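Intended use. Records like the one below are meant for learning the mapping from a protein sequence to its folded structure. Do not use them to infer anything beyond what is encoded.
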Amino acid sequence: MQPSLEAVGRFDENRVRRRFLDAFVPEETFKIIENGELAGFFVLRNKHDHLHLDHLYIHPDYQNRSIGGKVIAKVKSEAANKDLPIRLCALRDSKANNFYRKHGFVKTHEGEFDIYYEFNQR
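Structure written out for the chain above:
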């Protein structure tokens, strides 16, 4: 996340930490373990009409190993079981945009800094 925010001149460590901690709900936060090591985490929020993938962070040492794709498959499976779409946003200039589009997410709209996506299995 830091490189993406730095690229657009928006990285402020205190702001990022505060934003994350203010919204932290342990029951919605999941560790990504690869070969016994912490490879990242994701936050999946159950909303009344969708699942919101609020964060998906893979440590750089674990990127490009299909770990993110496995997480997306797990989230898609949960969404299918609940018959709900998945929504998320990504920083406009982040490499994550290509990742989400590759996994079937469709842009719904754009904000000043973010692009919003949805995946609907219907």
